[in-house]
Amino acid sequence: MVAYRIRPASVDDAAVILRFIRELADYEKALHEVAATEESIAASLFGEGSVSRAAICETEDGEPAGSAVWFKTYSTWQAKNGLYLEDLYVTPDHRGAGVGKLLLRHLARTALDEGCARFEWSVLDWNTPAIRVYDAIGAEPKPEWVRYRLDGEKLRQFAAG
Fold first, then answer.
1. By CB count within 10 A, which of 27, 67, 109, 124 is most buried?
2. Can 27 be counted among the known catalytic residues?
């Protein structure tokens, strides 16, 4: 049985995080949408003023097995921060070994340690392996909420008025 540990990611992990982002995007059939580079990962996650954080799950031999990237949100109704998981990724060789659950538990503890009122994330509706994990840990979908997004040219057009 493989033993795993979770540690805070550092700027030295930018290449691994980018690799995981690209592998996740490929799995989600959206590799063509990845614009991130090692440099932009280093700056956005570890640069001055960064609002995002990351953790790496690795084997006791130091082999990266997965990662999580998150940032804080805010609930006006609760007047407290929340923790929003942007990406959770587990390499194919380590899927089914509990790595995803370890990362989720790590973030749940982080949320509580930092006084967050909630821990939230999104999942593609066809990603049944991930949905099974989320259901198994007791997470609940919020079907009454519809997520909206402005990006790219639509964002620029709307901002321009």
1. 67
2. no
